[in-house]
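haha ok so turns out i had the wrong file open the whole time. this is the CORRECT one, sorry everyone. sequence first:
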Amino acid sequence: MIFVEGLLFCVLPAAQLFFRHSYYNEWLPNTYTLKMVGLDIKIRVLGGWGFMKIFIRSVWPALLLGTVGTVWQFKKEKALILLLMLSVMAYQVYVGGDPWPYWRIMAPYLPLLLLLNMSALESFFSWMIVRKFQPTPRFQRAGAILVSVLTVLLLVISWTNLKFGKEIYFLEKPFSAQYNASHVRIGLNLKEVCKPEATVGVFWAGTIPYFSGLRGIDFLGKCDKTIANLEPDSGMSGHGMLSIPGHNKYNLKYSIVELKPDYIQNYYWVGNDETVYAKEHYIMKNNMLFKKDSVNINWDRLPD
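then structure:
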């Protein structure tokens, strides 16, 4: 049984690897090249640790409780869960962080960490309450254990989600919600005014191409091999990082001047500015930038 499970874990990644090579003629995904290649490992790891320290400050009670509970009453299942959490944290450090401190990579593992917390709290309060209140009826002890576990767990969860409190209680919109709404509108508008052959040049590479149904030109290279193979801009920084993976490679002269997208989301990024070219070759219509005289635009559907 163990052999079959181990074989399955080997076969599936291998199948994906060979499919990628047959389809893209690449052994590694483009995002690997974009985020990892060309950036000195020291800059990457130091930046990743700076990013990770922000995360640790927000979840340290849960990490501490889970670790203590695992060590105090050791079981291999607990150790595996803790190891999974630590491994994804190490991965986040190794890749140099993430553009936004919203912990999207770690989030799927936090429920596992909370399971460790529940186990640790149940063990601790069972030991303490049973030892101190042994003469009391069993159901009362069980109730005291349950209340104690839930109270402390609620405090841990509250601390972990402190930064996101306003979003949780709908006092403010979730992160990037306003941008998502704007990009959906732009994508749907482009679908109406552009011909199927049109291309759209974007920094936010998902929403606009998806809702427009048009071919996207990704200025930041997540789906552009040429951009992914550029040298990264190690001068970009933020959220404790020395460089920002996935956002530190760009060449607007190539993406805009050479590829000539019919629509562009903007024409500058950090120190890369194609304002002069854009003002000469693009025109603003309906708050969108279109390539002048493009045959892929239905100009009659746009306001004068």
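Residues 37-168 form one domain.
again sry for the mixup
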